[in-house]
Structure formats: structure tokens, C-alpha cells
Amino acid sequence: MAENWTLNVNAGAANDPVFVGVGEIPTGKFPERGFIEALTKVAILALKDAGMVPREIDTILLIPNLHSAADQADLVFSRMVEELGIHGSCKSSFMVHSGGSTSDNALRTAHGLITAGHAKNVLVLQAERWGSADLNEMITMLSKNGIPGEWELPTGIQFNAIGAMITRRYMHATQSTPEEMASVCVTLRNWANLNDNAMFRDKTLTVEQILASRMVADPLHAYECPPMADGACAFVVTSTENAKKKGIGHAVRVAGSGGCVSHYCLSQERDQAVLGWPLAAERAWSQSGWGPEDADLAEIYDSYAAVTTSALEGIGIAEKGEGARWFAAGHGDPGGKLPMNTNGGLLSAGHTGVGGGTALLVEGIRQLLHRAPAKRQVEDCQRAIIGGTGGSYMDAQIVLLERTRLGA
Amino acid sequence: MNTSPIVRDFRAGLADGKLLIQQCDDCGKPNMWPRYACPHCQSDNLGWTESGGKGDLHSFCVLRQGAPEGFDGDLPYALGVVKLDEGVQLLVRLEQTGPDDWSGYECDDRVEFVSKEEGRECALFRRTGG
Fold it and tell me: Residue A340 contacts by C-beta under 8 Å, 6 or more apart in sequence?
């Protein structure tokens, strides 16, 4: 029996939350760039984009970092409130955390706070220094994320092994070839080449180069594994009423969302080629009033190609079993029928830990605000599918965004 | 270090050459991984049953570099997710099919429990012959 999920707020309602600004700085290796410095920069960029000043923000939602417990403490204990000069007026500052899907849950949190009246203007902030962190330390730290210490840590599992198992099962179930899997990475690189903030903005990539790169965790080649990067981004959410007062003509709203937490550790997933995407999609589509055929672009988590290809199938963008071949046919490329991960995604813009999904969400908002640089702006786009997942692909989160005219 | 009875007993089983599956003494259902309360009926009346050790290989990989701290000396090694015939799943190490070679495996292969992985608190599986 189909579930009934209804959003309790409609387009145009005074309390309907809308996205009005985004900020981002370049992703890559920036060892000299400080953590708080990065957060401050993207906060100010997002506020300027929204036409706001810091004191208008009453709530800060923090996306966690994975590189440093000390930096995490700075976030949790409200440092950004003071850095932005809103101590004494800011109502609330706190962290939301579900790993790679944090941005989707932060969005839902902001949405609920504004709808219910707990917040007026919410600033969501993210920064990560993965590209500058010690690689071995990060590998070891990540071997404890989504991996039960009692049962699975003793096997020596880590993130590339998790990605490799999902990839193997996906290839087996769909009979996708190594070339077809590699084509996903090529599409992402084609987009990254149009994004000046992407880690691989000026390097091209071919299927042949990928398949010739060293084997890291069979069947994953080195160029199919996400590059750890430093990066930061931010976005601003307000109410329709407030956006109208500010004279904002167009913004982005949430048409619906759906999710499914299918496991904690990968060994407990029933089907690694499917994950939680089908149920998440069913729930999201039941809220939105539009379907996959209505979307103008998609921004879906891509730490490994198979995560995205299974998502395409679960969401209904590609036929069952055809996700990788959908990419190989060029459908997600610039100029393709559904532009996919238009910032270059985690695999080519850079994997900024919890921030990879945030960057995809910010790109989706930016596209729908029609504020992407001309070379990658999807012309007159109105609707975007955002997909996220965290940990060992423990959850599938889908957010459906649409451009809305506020009639100002 | 977690020295909870469920961890201690599971590992003692492995050391004794047995793959144990937690079984709820109230509802009778098997739990893997072992849980601190039965996820089916919330009972804490939990015991053990020995697995037949046979199942299907859902997926696997061969890690060649980037091992977590303390595992460098094991490289390369293969990990697999096994769906046991008892209906529960677990992560295991896979026995090589040639020197540093696991090319003999495919998804959905029938596999069987061999023993505890030497030096590690986890199970080792191999392809079932024939």
C-alpha cells in the first residue's frame, strides 16, 4: 500500500521556505586556507547573494567536518556566531550530522524551523580540509565511519572497499562493463571542466585513462575513487513572506523530499545494486506533484559511480539496470537530456567529506536561481532532483527543488 | 575495547572454529550482527546457534592499497558480504584462489566458512567445491 506523505506548506504561503542565496569558494588543496577563514568567506558570499547582512540571520545550521575534532568543537560551540558578529542577537546555532546526506537533512531541518516559525532566516555553513589533512589518518578515521567496531573493523574494511563492493554488485546485476562505469566519471569531468571552483577544472579525463589507472580495490581503478579535497559552501533559507518583503522576485522552494535508511553497515544491505533509492523516490514523488520526466537537471551523490547509477534507476531517471549505460550514452553530459552533477560532483569537483553533498545541493539551488556561470547554466531550468547518501550508503535521501516566482 | 558478552562469545566461537549466529530465545529469530536486544521482539533473552557455514557471496572486493592503520601487512586482501543460508548476512575475509589472487570468485557464488581469519577477529570463507 502506498504511503501518504504530504508537505504541510504550499508554494506561495507566507511560511513556505525559500532558498535565496548561495556561496562557495574553490575546491582542491589549499593548505594555507584556514577552516574558520573558509567558513567566514562562504557565509559572507551567501549573505551577499541573498541580499542580506549577518544580523538578519537568527539561526545557523552547521554541516560537520571530518578532518578535526577541535575544529568540530569550534562549530558546535557557536564560534561562527561570534565571527559573523551576531552574538547577542542570534537565536540558535547547532550542527546537523548524517555524514554525506547531512545537507539533505539540514535542508529539512531549516525547512521545518521556518515553516513552524522557530526561525526566520537560516544560514547553513560547511567547510572541510580533507585535501590538506594527513591521508593515512583520514583513511583510518574513515574505517570507523559506518563500520561497527566490534564486528567489521577487524576485517580491515575501509571506504574504497565499500565503494568497490557496491560497484561489483551493481556491475554483476546490470551486466555493466568497466567502460560503462568509467563513462560516469568522464561525464562528471566534462562538467568540472566548466566549473572554475572544481578541483579538476583544467584536467580532462577519458575512459581509456581511467581503465589504465592502477587498481585500488577491484573493480575500482584509482581514477574511479573520489579525490579528497578542501572546500566550503553555504546557503541561505528564508520564508516566502520575508523574501517578498525584501523584493526578491524568484527563489527556490522544496517541492518534496523522501528518504530511506536501508542499513548501518554495508553487510546488512539486502541489495547493494539497489540501496534505499526506490523507497526514498516513492516518498519524494508522492510529495512533489511532478515526476522524473519533469526535471531539468539532477545533482546526485557520486562518491563512486555505482552509487549514482543505482540512484538513477531508483529515482526513475534511467530504466532498471541501465544507469551506467545512460551515462555512457551521454545523457548526463553538458548538452545531454538531463544535465547531471553540473559542478563536477564529488568525483571531479572534489570530495569534501560531508561537504560533497552540500556542494551538489548548493549547485542545484544556484542553477535554479539562474546564477551559475553562463558556460554551465542549464537554460531556463525550473526543477532539480537532489540526491544524497551517507556513511556506508546507509541512506538514500532525495530532495525535489523547484524555481518559484514570488510575485514581487 | 568492547568486552560485552556478545562480542566475547562470538569471538570465542570463531577461535573454536565455529561461526555463531545469535538467536533470540523468546521469538526464535536469528540476528546478525549480534545485538544488545532482539531487534524483532526487544527481548534480552539471547542465545547462540551454530551456523551451517554456507551461503551466497553477495559481493566482494580486493583491497590493494590504502589499508586502515595496522592492516598494511595484510595487503592485498579480499572482503566479501555473505548471505548465510540461515537468512542473515555478514562481512568476511575471502581465501585466495591463487597467490594474491581472488579472480576465481564471482557474485552469487556458493561459499562456506573455513575458520577464523588468522590474526584477525573475523571469519574466513572460501568457494564451495563443486
Answer: A187, A191, A297, A298, A299, A300, A308, A327, A331, A332, A333
- Which chain B residues have a beta carbon less than 8 Å from that of A143? 68-69
Q: Are A336 and A342 in contact (CB under 8 A)?
A: no
Q: Do B68 and A139 touch (CB under 8 A)?
A: yes
Q: How many Cβ pairs closer than 8 A exist between chain A and B?
A: 113
Torsion over CA: B108, B110, B113, B119 (sign):
negative
Shortest distance between the Cα of B26 and any Cα of chain A, in A, equals 23
Query: What backbone phi and psi angles, to 5 degrees, belong to A331?
Result: -65, -25
Whether chain A has a CB inside 8 Å of the CB on B3: the answer is: no
B68 close to A (CB below 8 A):
yes
Domain boundaries, chain B: 5-50, 54-127
Chain B residue at shortest CA distance from A147: B91
CA separation for the pair A317, A281 (Å, rounded): 11
What class, spelled out in words, does domain B54-127 have in CATH? mainly beta
The pLDDT assigned to A135 comes to: 81
Contacts of A174 in chain B (CB under 8 A): none
pTM of the model: 0.97
How far does the CA of residue B35 sit from the closest CA of chain A (Å)?
A: 11
Arithmetic mean of pLDDT over chain A: 96
3-state secondary structure A53-97: CHHHCCEEEECCCCCCHHHHHHHHCCHHHHHCCCCCCCCEEEECC
State mean pLDDT over B66-83: 96
Q: How far does A163 lie from chain B, in Å, by closest CA?
A: 9
Per-residue pLDDT reduced to its tens digit, A228-276: 999 999 999 999 999 999 999 999 999 999 999 999 999 999 999 999 9
Fold assignment, A17-133+232-245? Peroxisomal Thiolase; Chain A, domain 1 (3.40.47)
Per-residue pLDDT tens for A317-369? 999 999 999 999 999 999 999 999 999 999 999 999 999 999 999 999 999 99
Nearest neighbour of B58 by CB, restricted to A151, A161, A272: A272
Q: Where are the domains of chain A?
A: 17-133+232-245
Q: Does B122 touch chain A (CB under 8 A)?
A: yes
Q: Do A272 and B81 touch (CB under 8 A)?
A: yes
* A171 has a pLDDT exceeding 60: yes
Neighbouring CB atoms inside 10 A of A380's CB total 8
For residues A217-225, give the mean pLDDT.
98
